[in-house]
Amino acid sequence: MLTANDLNNNELIKIRMENNMREKLAYIPARHPKMDVIEIGSTLVVNSALPSDTFNTAFGGQIDGSTAKRVFDYYREKNFPMAWWVGPSSQTEYTDETLQAAGFNHDEYDVGMVANLLSLPEYSYPGQLEIKQCETDADFNDFGEVLSSIFAPYPEEAQVKRYYQQLHLVPAQDRPDLKLFVGYINGKAVSTAGLFLTDCAGIFDISTRPEERQKGYGTALFYRALEEAKSLGQQVSVLQASPDGLNIYKRFGFQQIGDFNVWSNAEALDA
């Protein structure tokens, strides 16, 4: 497990951050009876069995023309949208050109961030907010309902709901490293956070229903995931954030460390 002393080694942190994300993307699909995970070259390729670019993902690898074309064709044959996450170890001066030539379009830029959990600042939760770790089918459905709301009114909303409605097909004992949290106000699910554990603690899926934003609920769920990670002995936390969302994470000690680019096949499917 990474320790706070490892934070002085930026290259090590980048490698472990990428590994955390790669393993998280594959974690449920590799254990789910309807989903599939393969490798094309050294690139992770996930088939969620849903037409969803949230859950059909490729990750990293040494990206050459042959690999890029094979990944593109894999999803085109299924007529599935997908997202290819390219982290620091995969980005070269030729990567963008190679992916474009294969039919992908650049879709998103995110910033990798890291924090020392031993220096986690104090925080006061909103008094009326109840936070629950997901255990039952109903809990996972609530998680999916909230997370999907950020995609409304687009088709992805329905696919995100379906994904979490199927999560019960992976027994709890087979997914000990994934911990999901839902925040409730007067019984209404309003916000989510996800935690994935490797040798560092990855934070994912911080979301709040659009009508419940600007009330501190997302921050509370984010902090709850950090607290859980720290209680389990983790000292280093990582995440990927959009450039306009960095400040909230910096408040809790996160610092920028590497770039992630996301490539899409959606334009080719629409053609």
TrEMBL record:
CDD domains: NAT_SF. One of its GO terms (molecular function) is acyltransferase activity, transferring groups other than amino-acyl groups. The keyword Transferase applies. Residues 129-271 form the N-acetyltransferase domain. Gene3D superfamilies: 3.40.630.30. PROSITE patterns: GNAT. InterPro entries: Acyl_CoA_acyltransferase, GNAT_dom. Transmembrane segments: none annotated. Keywords: Transferase. The keyword Transcription regulation does not apply. This is GNAT family N-acetyltransferase. It comes from Legionella israelensis.
